[in-house]
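Friendly challenge for the regulars: who can give me the structure tokens for this chain first? No prize, just bragging rights.
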Amino acid sequence: MKKHEEEMAPHSGRHVIRLFSGYADSPIWAANGPVDYADSALTEELVADLTAWDSSSYGGVDGLLIEMSEASKALAEELADRLATELGDGFVVSCDGDVGSAMFASKMPPTNPDAAAAFTKLIDDELKLQEFSRGNMHYYAPLSGQVFKGPGNHRDSRDPETPGTT
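First reply, four minutes later:
Bragging rights claimed.
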């Protein structure tokens, strides 16, 4: 299973959110990419702490990611737990984003229902987009002039009304 599919796959009936630093505007990943803080509805305090932790993950002369210290790992786990608490019992937060990483989940309703609703919407929108794309994907082969729609179907782009077979 690809990592972006894992993020959206329910884990014990819950959506998986990944928390890790990685050259994005946010260390929170859901659906197919990083979650913009403006779309997250998370509390200002949690966003500030996530931003500070994420910023501390970069260093050196080249500004590349640095290896996490034990203190940074502990802080990441604390932030993952706080994120899970805000999102509530419909989500699991994977710390570091790797398979086998520490997982945090709340057994309680969300302490921030607006954030839970925002994350649910982000994930649902991505699932709808993927479902729509599966049946409506088109590929174009410029050298042959063929347009392929889904597996096993193609047509000559010079005559869009004439379907063909592969």
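Residues 113-136 form the longest helix (24 residues). The mean pLDDT is 77. Your move, everyone else.
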